[in-house]
Amino acid sequence: MESNGSPAPRVRDIDLPLGMNVNTRPKQAGSRRLPPASTVFSALIVVAMLGTATAIATRERPFRFPEPVVVSVPVDATIQAPPEPAGTPTAPSAAGPSIIRAETPNTPPPSVTIIRDPSQTVQDQRVAHLPDRSLIEESPDGPLPKRAENGRRPFDTYARPWSGARGAKIALVIGGLGVSQTGTQDAIAKLPPEVTLAFASGGNSLSRWMQAARQAGHELVLQVPLEPFDYPTVDPGRGTLTVDATASENIANLHSVLGRMTNYVGLVNYMGARFVADADALKPLMAELGTRGLMYLDDGTSARSETEAVSQAHGVPFAAADTQIDGTRERGEILKKLDELERTARAQGQAVGIGSAFDTTVDAVASWVAEAKKRGIEIVPISAVARDPERR
Question: What pTM value is reported for the model?
Answer without folding.
Answer: 0.71
